[in-house]
Design brief:
The complex is a heterodimer. Chain A is mainly alpha-helical. Chain A is 71% helix and 5% strand. Chain B is built from 11 helices and 17 strands. In chain B, the strands form 4 sheets. In chain B, strands 12-10-9-8-6-7-17 form a 7-stranded mixed sheet, with helices on both faces. In chain B, strands 2-1-3-4-5-11 form a 6-stranded parallel sheet, with helices on both faces. The chains are: A mainly alpha, B alpha/beta.
């Protein structure tokens, strides 16, 4: 009796990886999405619209015609690229939340190259040498920007989470200054790039989507089938093991962060050359943070990231249409997206733990 | 676990269905309304930087949109609006323009200055759709026939609001509440650009026409819409001795700050008396319905409309909001009527060169347009017939001269 009094109504038990079948884990994930959509119904209904019609509008607005699909893809491209960039860091348990700044640094370097090299604004077609210079400069500066916190972490074991976060604000501040100062064209903005610096379009979307799809394979191979990828995995699982095995942990950290920053920088290049055709302090627009969710939801699996980033693209584009078509306040769209992300991330808890209800007298078995 | 999940899901489903059903009724009612008699229907796009929640800039466009819809309905034109809210000044604006064009809009209005670059990427692909960038200025110079700019002579409205402010300050001087030297106006400006400078100069000249000793301090916030920065700027201006605050930015926070500091206030974009009843004297705003009506009617009838449009007080494109009778100086209404009539018939010029000096001298020469893209005006003499002619050569303001009596703090 005493024992029963002490035991709580619900208790948590960590699952062994073997106790949950993959199918069951995916069912939980699917259930969490459904649950979030149902919660979203309440929000939509409170705003005075029909939830079922609203979800229909969202889907239609994201995938209904070619123009919508192009926009959806355009929203997914930077998310995917950036998720790929931070995946190696996270695998290493190096919490790089500075992708936002690394994107901005990349875009800044790309813009610098445009200002340096594109002298004639007449060029009406994309110039491959110029685009390559922009991409390389973007990767270099993005990588260097990421290398700084990695260096401090390797040398003096500084906190990389805070360090990378703070680096975001510095580079965004630099761009804000350039935008209103030395590089200002008119009324606080930098001039549009000449067309020679625009990424060409393929199927109606700038070809950044091809670049990131190629990256998916590269990152997959790098993480799963190379020595460097293996080193990253070992450090992530156990720092001590890596040290004991004779790995130069500091060097690997710096190398991985440079790689991560370089890919983020490339995303910055894609954004400024393909999407906005100019640089502004808002160029990253939260992609660096949202992509953390993408990477996490995908369990750092490069192929899953394609699906998750597309899903987020569909959600944001759909939510955008929702505002236009049904006059739903913008905040409601944000609530729906927030609910989905929350439930999808939260469901991992139920995959890792199981709930055990207090056993009733006489009856056995836990509800789960 | 399974049971709980199932239970929760069922409950949520039931709840969702319940609220979903109860919501069905108003949806169906809307469709029948459109069944008007054989009228032309035209699809019109509007891209907004904010939504009605700003109670300022975009809200003012929404009012214009609604009024234009009514006015056009009376003329037998039904407008079907497709509106994109909260679009940032970036590539999202290009997407929005493309989407509205693909949706079949015959004319697309972009409400924010920074949208023009992105609009211009879409316009060449749709020569039969009219693209409008409100408050911007590329159309007279670009080679496209389907791009347009529009602005209203808001400097006239600001001049009038300045008269109300000046009369209030003169009343305070006459009462002995403040000395003549203490009549200082504080102005919260967005950016040090022509649009803002033209506005506060007109406002100041309006005030000085009735209160000769008035001076002005301007604080820029370097943002069109930053509620906190605008509030802080208003606070700093009050602390620097300003007795009356006005603004050229999107939020109502300077009004509340002025009230809390015991200063008076005149607003822009919206009537802010409800926000600051103890401070707000009057406001001025652009009535966009005048332009919307003209442009949409032209497009619906297959006619052309000006690529660079600007109208003012005379045509109702600029209006004053209600006077706060409780606060304004006696005789304000009569004085306003007199000045308004003067502005309409041209006997009063806002930028009359006899009423202000630049570096101690009268202004005799100033160019209006920038033709070579270096952002310094180089063409079309704006000073003639004893006045600087604002919004005469292009709709977007180009008065960017610093006159004596106004100090900028940053």
């Amino acid at each position: 009796m005493d024992e029963k009094l002490k035991s709580p109504l619900i208790r948590l038990e960590k699952r062994n990886k073997s106790t949950i079948k993959p199918v069951y884990a995916w069912l939980i994930r699917l259930g969490s999405i459904l649950f979030a959509l149902l919660l979203g119904c309440i929000a939509i209904a409170l705003a005075g619209s029909n939830p079922i019609k609203a979800y229909g509008t969202m889907l239609d607005g994201a995938l209904g015609n070619a123009a919508f699909r192009q926009q959806t893809v355009k929203k997914a491209v930077p998310l995917l690229g950036c998720a790929l960039a931070i995946a190696p860091c996270f695998k290493m348990r190096f919490w790089n939340i500075g992708a936002e700044g690394q994107i901005t640094a990349g875009a800044l370097a790309a813009t610098f190259m445009v200002r340096l090299l594109a002298t004639k604004p007449e060029g009406n077609s994309a110039s491959l040498p110029l685009l390559l210079c922009m991409a390389l400069a973007a990767m270099l500066l993005g990588g260097l920007w990421a290398l700084i916190p990695a260096f401090f972490k390797a040398k003096w074991n500084t906190n990389e989470t805070l360090f990378t976060l703070m680096m975001n604000y510095i580079i965004i501040g630099v761009v804000a200054w350039l935008q209103a100062g030395p590089w200002e064209a008119r009324q606080g903005r930098i001039a549009q790039f000449p067309q020679s610096a625009w990424l060409p379009k393929v199927e109606g979307v700038h070809c950044g989507w091809i670049i990131v799809l190629v990256l998916v394979f590269i990152i997959h191979i790098y993480m799963r089938h190379t020595k460097q990828g293996y080193e990253i995995a070992v450090i992530g699982d156990s720092l001590r093991t890596a040290q004991y095995a004779g790995m130069n942990v500091g060097r690997i950290m710096m190398r991985t962060m440079f790689l991560s920053g370089a890919i983020s920088g490339l995303v910055g290049f894609i954004l400024c050359s393909g999407a906005t055709n100019t640089l502004s302090k808002d160029i990253a627009g939260g992609v660096g943070f949202t992509s953390i969710t993408v990477a996490w939801l995908s369990q750092l699996n490069a192929f899953a990231m394609v699906a998750i980033s597309l899903m987020l693209g569909i959600l944001t584009k759909g939510a955008d249409t929702l505002q236009t078509v049904m006059n739903v306040p913008a905040a409601i769209s944000d609530i729906i997206i927030g609910l989905l992300l929350f439930c999808m991330l939260g469901c991992e808890f139920f995959i890792n733990y199981r709930l055990i209800l207090r056993k009733k007298a006489g009856k056995g078995g836990a509800a789960a | 676990m399974k049971k709980i999940l199932a239970l929760v899901l069922c409950l949520a489903l039931v709840a969702a269905l319940f609220v979903g059903c109860s919501d069905n009724k108003p949806e169906t009612g809307k469709n029948t309304e459109a069944g008007n008699k054989a009228a032309t229907t035209i699809k019109v796009g509007l891209i907004c930087i904010g939504d009605e929640n700003d109670q300022g800039y975009t809200y003012n466009f929404i009012r214009g949109k609604d009024a234009a819809t009514e006015a056009l309905k009376a003329k037998g034109i039904n407008v079907e609006w497709v509106v994109k809210w909260n679009i940032p000044e970036g590539d999202a604006c290009e997407d929005a323009n493309r989407e509205l064009a693909a949706a079949g809009c015959k004319v697309i209005f972009n409400n924010s200055f920074g949208f023009e670059d992105y609009m211009l990427k879409v316009a060449p692909d749709y020569p039969n759709i009219q693209f409008v960038s409100c408050t911007n200025q590329a159309s007279w110079g670009d080679s496209l026939k389907n791009t347009h700019n529009a602005f209203a002579n808001i400097y006239e409205g600001r001049y009038l609001a300045g008269v109300v402010a000046g009369m209030k300050l003169q009343q305070l001087i006459n009462d002995g509440t403040i000395t003549a030297e203490q009549a200082v106006i504080g102005y919260v400006g967005a950016f040090p650009f022509a649009e803002v400078k033209s506005g506060y100069t007109a406002y100041f000249l309006g005030a000085r026409s009735v209160c000769p000793s008035v001076t002005m301090k301007v604080q820029f916030v370097n943002n069109w819409s930053d509620a906190t920065a605008e509030s802080n700027a208003a606070s700093a201006l009050c602390d620097a001795g300003c007795k009356l605050i006005s603004q050229h930015a999107d939020n109502s926070t300077p009004a509340t700050m002025a009230q809390s500091k015991g200063a008076f206030f005149t607003s822009y974009n919206n009537d802010m008396i409800s926000v600051a009843p103890e401070a707000c004297l009057v406001g001025t705003r652009i009535d966009w319905s005048v332009y919307f009506t003209e442009a949409i009617e032209a497009v619906a009838n297959g006619k052309e409309f000006p690529q660079d449009w600007s109208k003012g007080l005379k045509d109702g494109a600029v209006v004053l909001t209600a006077l706060n009778d409780k606060l304004v100086a006696p005789g304000t209404k009569e004085k306003l009527a007199e000045v308004e009539a003067g502005l309409k018939d041209g006997s009063i010029q806002v930028f009359d060169t006899k009423t202000f000096t630049v570096g101690g001298k009268e202004l005799t020469q100033a160019f209006a347009l920038d033709t070579d893209g270096d952002f310094v005006p180089d063409k079309e003499e704006a000073v003639f017939d004893g006045a600087f002619h604002e919004s005469y050569f292009q709709s977007a303001p180009y008065f960017a001269i610093d006159i004596d009596g106004i100090t900028t703090l940053n």
